[in-house]
Amino acid sequence: MTNTNKQTPIYDLEERTFQFAKDVRIFLKSLPKSISSIEDGKQLIRSSGSIGANYIEANESLSKKDFLMRVKISRKEAKESIYWLRLLSEINSDEFIMESNRLITEAIELKKILSSIIEKSR
Questions:
Q1: Which of 54, 56, 46 is CA-nearest to residue 74?
Q2: What is the pTM of this model?
Q3: 80 CB contacts (<8 Å, ≥6 apart)?
Q4: Which of 25, 64, 72, 87 is the most exposed place for a label (fewest CB within 10 A)?
């Protein structure tokens, strides 16, 4: 299931985190190549992919403690993704603002969803 029209929310969190990581990679391909955008982009690639990877691991966890730890890591990676997206948004021209803001909004929503899962799992 892909969300190419960006209007219908994805309720499968594994798929939604995958789509976010994919969208981040597409966004990074569009940025001008500079030392800072390449290095910041590498960090963003790691953190955006780690959100979903850790959430998948959480769903396969053997204990509640392991589950919570993995979801907390996912939330931490969402926060880190917000940071790198903000930084890339600030150093690039205005033509990238709309897409970076959309990705920041999605990362914030993912962080909130993950925070809610943590609160409900305690």
A1: 54
A2: 0.89
A3: 43, 47
A4: 64
